[in-house]
Amino acid sequence: MQRRSSEAPLPPPRSLALRLLDGVERVGNRLPDPLTLFVALGAAVLLASWLAARAGVSVTHPGTGATVAASNLLSAEGLRRILTGLVPNFAAFPPLGTVLVAMIGIGVAERSGLVAAALRSLVAAVPPSLLTATLVFAGVMSSVASDAGYVVLTPLGALLFAGVGRHPIAGLAAAFAGVSGGFSANLLLTSLDPLLAGLTQPAARLVDPGYTVQPTANYYFMAASVLLVTAVGTVVTSRFVEPRLGPWKGGAAAADAPLGALEPGEKRGLLAAGAAFLLVTGLAAALTLPRGGVLRAPDGAPTPFFESIVPLIFAAFLLPGLAYGIAARTIRSDKDVARMAGETLGTMGPYIVLAFAAAQFVAWFGWSNLGLILAVTGAEVLQALGLDGIALLLGFVAVSAVINLFIGSASAKWAIMAPVFVPMLMLMGYSPEVVQATYRVGDSVTNIVTPLLPYFPIIVAFARKYDPAVGIGTLLSAMLPYSIALAIAWTAMLLLWLGLGIPVGPDVPIHYPPAG
After folding, report:
1. For 503-514, what is each residue's pLDDT tens digit?
2. Beta 58-60 vs 67-69: how paired, if at all?
3. C-alpha 486: how far from its chain's center?
4. If we measure between CA atoms, which residue out of 397, 513, 409 comes closest to residue 452?
5. For a surface tag, which of 4, 118, 286, 437 has the fewest beta carbons within 10 Å of its beta carbon?
6. Coil, strand or helix at 59
């Protein structure tokens, strides 16, 4: 029967890719609340540790040669460790202090009106066509401040998109893709570079006792990767994530980033905030840049600076927020400041409870040795396949990506994998620096889809500010296209890079032993 013209047209059929993502979201959101999920995962670890210990599961650590056996957490000793470690696990959970300290400063900056005014100013300065790319690029570059991008940029990405009428979850996803998926890439050297090089060098010396790996070992490749991650993140956001989410219908949170011309008081506030920000950055530079600076170690390394990133971010938001509020007259007394900081931390209650459960799970998983056993077993499987050349590199990327789903720390994984893969691939003709770069690709691409990432719960909490119904499935379905696209594009770039004979870092050979 012919449809009447007054009837609304049927929506166009969704593509197979979008239907698959819808399925991921449905299945993921049928999982229990993240709090319940972490409790269940913790219980599963306890049971798995008992079963693995009873079965005598063990592996040989490739770096030390020691036997690593599954530890039964349901034994008397294990139960004592669980009970005595309950509070320390929570207090020492890495994201907890980072998030809460940073959020005090961010809360004052946001509730004083600084964040909204600054975002409106940014929207006016950045062409709409470059807004997504700017956000992803900022996320990639945030790794110079270690993990701070998770706490700072992901909520600002959502706020920025909401302010221009775009879906805030898409802005959050774009920022998260840059921060997490592009964590290894940067135009500058970050704390990760010397950390990984320090693990690669002793592994390389198992083959060549005099081999030296510099912190700049992967600089060329990782600097070029910034452009790749930015481009992939931009395309995936505009072509997949935003169309699937649909138009933003607004809501209470949309008012957090109002549009429109800045008022005279807001302009005064931004000038004052800018001056305060320059003061903070100038002070940080004065404490760090001189050879004998306060934020330098006795050997001249800027390690104390990297360890002070969170307090510096706290100051970089708090002081400009105070300056803005005083100049714009949104802060009239110290009571306003205390109220703003208190209200911000008040909204973090659900995350704090979630962090308690996540902290126990992460600690128990480490104590059980199950993650270490899985990592070593995966490496042994790849070694046993007898691959060589490009197939071996592809297998190495895949194993690194899979292991990353179980062990979130890049350095912890590399400490396990380097003694196996660096000598093996050196004997296959690849330099240690190339092996390290290959690992960094595989380690990065699944960062954004593993709920075991310590910052995953806070990303869910940020998203629920705009949609209380957001669950793990919603976030996974939004981030999966980034993970797949990055895995394909970044691996292809690596193979092309090596195929063209381009060194991955200054004075770094591709092959071992180097020609000549």
Report:
1. 999 889 998 887
2. antiparallel
3. 14
4. 409
5. 4
6. strand
